[in-house]
Design goal:
The chain has helices at about 5-40, 45-65, 70-90. The longest helix has about 35 residues, at about 5-40. The protein is mainly alpha-helical and about 90 residues long. The radius of gyration is 18 Å and the shape is elongated. Helices cover about 85% and strands about 0% of the residues. α1 (about 5-40) runs antiparallel to α2, α1 (about 5-40) packs parallel to α3 and α2 packs antiparallel against α3.
Amino acid sequence: MANTRSALKRMRQSEKRRVRNAAVRSGVRTAVKTTRAALGAASVEEARASLARAIRLLDKAVTKGVVHKNAAARKKSRLARQLNALAAARPA
């Protein structure tokens, strides 16, 4: 257990951040999973809407420092590439 006042404050701050980071990370994971499911179901419009939401959440996670910017860019790129391949295979 922490002894000093500054260590106690640091513990409180860390716990707050841990909870917030877990919530943000969970939301990002859910959005990416939903996008992958839509891509798997081969529904282009649903996948497009889901990808837009996932990209928005990834960008917000980057600004909050929860996800590294390159990791977010990689996820966005891979999902967009899958969507483009699906759209090319099934013209609307």
